[in-house]
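Re: the request from the purification team.
They wanted to know what the chain is likely to look like in 3D before they choose a buffer screen. I agreed to run a prediction and write the result into the notebook, where they can find it.
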Amino acid sequence: MDATTPPDPAEEPTDATVEEAAGWLGGPVAQVPADRDGVVEADDAAPEPAAPSDGDLSAAEPPPELRAPGPMPDMGADGTVAWRALLAETTSTLARNQVDAAPVEARRIVEEAAGHDGSALLVHLDDPATVSGVAALDRMVERRLGGEPLQYVLGRWGFRALDLMVDERVLIPRPETEGLVDHVLAELDRRARTTPGGGPIDVPVVIDLGCGSGAIGLAVAAERRTVEVHAVDVE
């Protein structure tokens, strides 16, 4: 056979024809072993990659973004999970992610998901969590781990005797602002006491410009019912 002519596919492949084909193709030809009938075995044609050894588990380890956030909470015999277990898991997850005051924040998030605030949560800690409650809990934990302030995650925050709705459009009510309300109330009381003549007292008017969440104006209106309050903002 001329070395420049490709081998006849009908011929029985021998070592010689393989070598000739290699020279014709200009490079080495991989020799795949065949069985007696000339059929390539599937196992021989596509060998599976070797499993990692006992000392090397890096190939079997999932990337960080696919790892579970923590141990799964204990499930009851009926397949349900109690709020107590979810509270422990949430506390652990926040603590592992360096969230300050993880126990306090975990409790606030679980209270919101369970629909029970303060001491009421203690009564219901061993109740089975609802599907919607667990979904809400997961969403809030994800947002908190993403860096959102707890107040925005909860969607509300306490201010004096009020429970205010808050989100990213407003500033978070601060304890210092509660002190400002104290000064406003003190001034209203001073003006009411010094009204001369003892006649009818004009209704005092308070205007809260750039009110945001309305914390100042709402607190004044709630604690001094005789005051007329106007709260304004750009939206």
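For the purification team: The radius of gyration is 37 Å.
Please add any questions underneath this entry.
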